Amino acid sequence: MGAIKRAFYNNILGSGKFDATDLTGTIPSANITGSPVQALSSDPPSPTNGQIWYNTSDNALRASVFLAGALAWSSGGNLGTARNQMSGGSGFGIQTAGALAGGGVPTSTANVEEYNGSAWSEVNNLPEGLQWGGGMGTLTAGIHVGGTISPGANRNTTRHYDGTNWTSGGNLAATGRVRGCFGTQTAGITAGGSPRDSIGQTAEEYDGSSWTAIAAPAFKAEGKGAGSASPVSAGIIFGGSPPGPQQQTETWNGSAWSTGPNMSQVRRYMGGFGTATASIAAGGSTSSSQLNATEQYNGTAWSTAASYSTARGQTGGSNTATTAGYIAGGETPVSPSLSAATEEYTVATPGFTTKTVTTS
């Protein structure tokens, strides 16, 4: 194609790309030799940060570029007991030190399991079998609230977990199940729940010993997801069922709820974790099917994130930030309907990769 001109400014389009009509054919190695760009017969095995070279065998200009770690799901250890009817609210703790309490197997169970980041182990049971309960806090300072026993007697109980034993806390003002929960054992919030007509548009705040009614959410719903690591001064709830699955988002500033942008997918009984400015809504169900779709919230808008492998709703989840959460158990659309699977949401390790330089 002849000698390469040094003055490229006349060949740059408004988009910032080179005008490809002036860059046809291959670049002869003679045009590269003698320049700061090395001419090499093969790609270097360990290029340095930002290194650029010309591969004479492939007639290609190449560079070493940095790729940030992408968010992705990966398989974790299976629960010892498959279960559903958790709605993301039965879990507490983080990805490497978490717990799930209760659920349906298919009737209500008192079974509790702890997760160390790779395997689940059975620990002390809840005082009674409960499904559709709420959870928040850490592995050594967790909380399980409300829920129901089969065949449908709702509870207003609060149970504290210290990493070994369960003790009673203050009772909720409203009796019910399937609540959105966020916060800690000494500063937590529940919002919405079932029965919808009595508690679907209520919220309560916990100080470690007693619950107090706070401002009502704008939407009446059960089965909401929540950014469960959010503090009580900056929380988030999303989705739910009034009775059909919804897309709405509400954020809490410590004294009032504000309506935020809708999720793109209607969903209820989903896994939820993160904070008010970095939340994940994972899976859940529509009126007719389970989902594996994931959405991520950045404090301004929802966007599509990586989907996990097996569609399911009614999962348990962690109480952690966006980049290190998990979902476990749940209900799948295929037999067996109760799942024991765990999937972890993490950031892949960042690193350098080789890219061919092109005109696009």
Strands ordered across the widest β-sheet: 1-2-3-30
The tally of helices reads 1
Give the class from helix and strand content and strand pairing: mainly beta
Q: Biggest β-sheet, characterized? A: 4 strands, mixed
Describe the structure.
Strand 25 and strand 26 (302-305) form a beta hairpin. The chain has one helix and 30 strands. The protein has two domains: 9-67, no CATH class; 71-347, 6 Propeller (Neuraminidase). The chain has 360 residues and is an all-beta fold. The relative contact order is 0.15. The strands form eight sheets. Strands 1-2-3-30 form a four-stranded mixed sheet, with no helix packed on it. The chain has one helix at 196-199; strands at 38-40, 52-55, 60-67, 71-75, 91-94, 97-101, 112-115, 120-122, 134-138, 141-145, 148-149, 153-154, 158-161, 166-168, 180-183, 188-191, 203-206, 211-213, 225-226, 235-238, 249-252, 257-260, 271-275, 278-282, 294-297, 302-305, 316-317, 324-328, 342-347, 351-356. Helix content is 1%, strand content 34%.
Indicate the topology.
Layout: E1 38-40, E2 52-55, E3 60-67, E4 71-75, E5 91-94, E6 97-101, E7 112-115, E8 120-122, E9 134-138, E10 141-145, E11 148-149, E12 153-154, E13 158-161, E14 166-168, E15 180-183, E16 188-191, H1 196-199, E17 203-206, E18 211-213, E19 225-226, E20 235-238, E21 249-252, E22 257-260, E23 271-275, E24 278-282, E25 294-297, E26 302-305, E27 316-317, E28 324-328, E29 342-347, E30 351-356
Parallel strand pairs: 1-2
Antiparallel strand pairs: 2-3, 3-30, 4-29, 5-6, 6-7, 7-8, 9-10, 10-13, 11-12, 13-14, 15-16, 16-17, 17-18, 19-20, 20-21, 21-22, 23-24, 24-25, 25-26, 27-28, 28-29
